[in-house]
Amino acid sequence: MNQHHARTAVFSAGSWGTAVGKIMADAGTSVIMHARRDEIADAINATHRNAGYFPDVELPHTVTATTDPATALDGADFLVLSIPAQSLRTGLAAWAPHIGPDTVIVSLMKGIEIGSGLRASQVITEVTGIGAERVAVLSGPNLAREIMDGQPAAATVACPDEDAAHRVQRACHTPYFRPYTSTDVTGCELGGAVKNVIALAVGIASGMGMGHNAQAMLITRGLAETTRLATAMGAHPATLAGLAGLGDLVATCSSPLSRNRTFGTHLGHGLTVAEATAATRQTTEGVKSAEAILALAGAHDVEMPITEIVSDLLHEKVTLDQAASALMQRPPKPER
Ligand SMILES: NC(=O)C1=CN([C@@H]2O[C@H](COP(=O)(O)OP(=O)(O)OC[C@H]3O[C@@H](n4cnc5c(N)ncnc54)[C@H](O)[C@@H]3O)[C@@H](O)[C@H]2O)C=CC1
Ligand SMILES: O=C(CO)COP(=O)(O)O
């Protein structure tokens, strides 16, 4: 396929969808964004800006927008999916009839579905009936704001079909964005989903006034529990040491741009979950995914003490002080 004539449909025009739309346009594909709101689509077409999310950044003029799913998907080589993980099943069911037979789906979502325990790529194959070889995952340390500013970043594109992974890689490779390929979809998706819960924990610790030693402890032991779950579910351990694992964990747990870290900071300052939710405008996947991840841990007989305590805090079963001492007073054990 001549990449310069490839077409990409992005659902939807939120913060990460818009940033990936910009990347793929800068990489030479023509991009059509699907927005639910007329004013977002109209502003992209008229002013080349996503007024709702990044009013200060001009998008490449090869990015257009529509509110009509059929128009967006007509002739699409790539369908990029970027909506909240818990909304994926219903959102995608409505769009699925318009997906062409050769379209490769690229999931950007970092969440696990409550109830089913399915990763986003599994929800996609289940809802659409499309084979896993046509579903790729793009994941890594990619705070949308930095990407919109053209700052350097890298990510992993995972798909069981290496050729599809390479096509996606070419379609999102720019001077500022460096995608690597992988076949470990499970590892990439679990790395992305669990790091949001660990970022909540780091935000909580920071909000409570804990220093960098405590935050590094949570990041490191958070990676250990992420790797335990992911490998129990068939992932390769090296994936969790890569961009979609350690890389994303470090970026998200360190950056005030992270919604999950910021949500945790609110909790650490003493806000209730309802108050922290009211203070958050955008998708904060870890808040919903924590309990789904904990259920997976139970099903696979894996210990995830940080995820467990974050889930307890989110359900307001424990206080901040009880959570901190519960983690510190676990029985001593070897590091591995
Ligand atoms: N923002 C970031 O820096 C990054 C986000 N992600 C992941 O990307 C996914 C999307 O996150 P963001 O774009 O940041 O969220 P966002 O809150 O900025 O945008 C979400 C988008 O989904 C749409 N949406 C919400 N509910 C919907 C529904 N029921 N049906 C259809 N569309 C719906 C919204 O209109 C909006 O366009 C999440 O899984 C997140 O973890 C991944 C990497 C970076
Ligand atoms: O996934 C992200 C960076 O890679 C964004 O993290 P937040 O969803 O916490 O903002």
UniProtKB/TrEMBL annotation:
EC number: 1.1.1.94
The entry's keywords: Cytoplasm, Lipid biosynthesis, Lipid metabolism, NAD, NADP, Nucleotide-binding, Oxidoreductase, Phospholipid biosynthesis, Phospholipid metabolism
Amino acids binding NADPH: S15, W16, R36, R37, Y53, K110, A144, R259, E285
Pfam family, any one: NAD_Gly3P_dh_N
Keyword Amino-acid biosynthesis in record: no
Compartments, as annotated in UniProt: Cytoplasm
Class of the enzyme per the UniProt entry, highest EC level: oxidoreductase
Name this protein carries in UniProt: Glycerol-3-phosphate dehydrogenase [NAD(P)+]
Organism: Streptomyces daghestanicus
